[in-house]
Amino acid sequence: MLKVFLLLVIASGISGCGGWKYKANGEVAFEIRSWNHDPIIRVVEKADTKSFMDLGEGFGKDKYRVFYKGDEITGASPETFEKIHWAYSKDSNAVYLFTCKLEKAGPETFQLLDGSWSKDSKSVYHGHQLVEADASTFRYVGNNWALDSANAYHALSSVSLGCDDNSHLKVKIFRNIDLETFKVIDGFKAQDKNGAFDALPSPNKALQPTAKSGG
What we know:
- Mean pLDDT is 82; it is low at 1-18 and 203-213.
- The protein is mainly β.
- It has strands at 4-8, 28-34, 37-43, 53-56, 59-61, 66-68, 71-72, 82-85, 88-90, 95-97, 100-101, 111-112, 117-119, 124-126, 129-131, 139-142, 145-147, 152-154, 172-174, 183-184, 189-192, 195-198, 205-206.
- The radius of gyration is 21 Å and the shape is elongated.
């Protein structure tokens, strides 16, 4: 029987990590290597060694289950599973980020945007957070800002490892903006003809009384 060691490259934002590869011996294991600590090895106890395949970017599967960085993606179908990009993946029934299932996401129309945003034909997401927005007109405009046909959205380009909505950086929504004059100033500020918007204060509020916000 083969022993599989997955040596993963952790995302570039985490310093000190090396590469990944397979090694042979009798069980599937996930190994994290770094120049500043000894290898960390996690045995993937549920993996079937005979049918296990490395899919790259931390993904693997056997004939029974799908895994990301050694953890099972619960409910994912090995037969129809495919990577999308980075930590995103899908099968015929659902879309996943890390090991989290994106609520209501349709794999056939799902697409990644910039700034940790994504959408399908009906829903919009920041990371794994479902956002109330118009998917048909939603677009990322840069510097942490996005727009749809009526509102502006601000969220830092960062996602939580947890699947719980409470563990995620929340999206701030500025409602009823003027699209024709809306302009991004920087990573936290924007304006339109009616006023200015500041994404730093909490709860969400605009710098000008005429600029409505919520979320």
